[in-house]
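Below is how a single chain appears once it has passed through the pipeline. First comes the sequence as given, then the structure the pipeline wrote out for it. We keep one example in the README because the format questions we get most often are answered faster by looking than by reading.
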Amino acid sequence: MIAAPPWRALPVSLLAGAVLGWTVQGWHKDAALADLRGAAATAQATAAAALVQATGRVLQLERAATGQLAARTDQLIEENQHAQTDRDRFMADVRSGALRLSIPVAGHCPGATASTTNSAAAGSNRQQARAELDGTAAAALDAIASDGDAATRQLNACIDAYNLMRDTYHVQTE
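Resulting structure:
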């Protein structure tokens, strides 16, 4: 066999080295990509687990808040029913005459003596002249007061619901 001249061995060696380097670099790149894919999969699994836990906590808070809101709604309904019962009893007493409503009268009133009307102005302890309300006027005043009381109960329930949501979800208010 005839030996190849040394100058021919150099290009073949360089070509073999380049192919070997390219192959090793490809293996290294493939290994790095596999490591990145593994890290991304791990991070994605961790994020999914954290999302599941956070969703569970929020759902638990939501269930608790819903129960508390339902309890507050029931309480408001009960308060309104008690108020209506009290109002009905009050108006029944007014209509039957068991309870009489009157308002103070300023100035001269038929049936009131001058000393009675002047006693209020003088600041003495004598009884002041008063006018008794009829049933219609009493009912009208009671309706106005009852509407205001109902609105106050409803607004208090709204404030309680707002505070419950703010405290449950730890919302920062300004």
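Confidence is low (pLDDT under 50) at residues 114-122.

See the next section for the split statistics.
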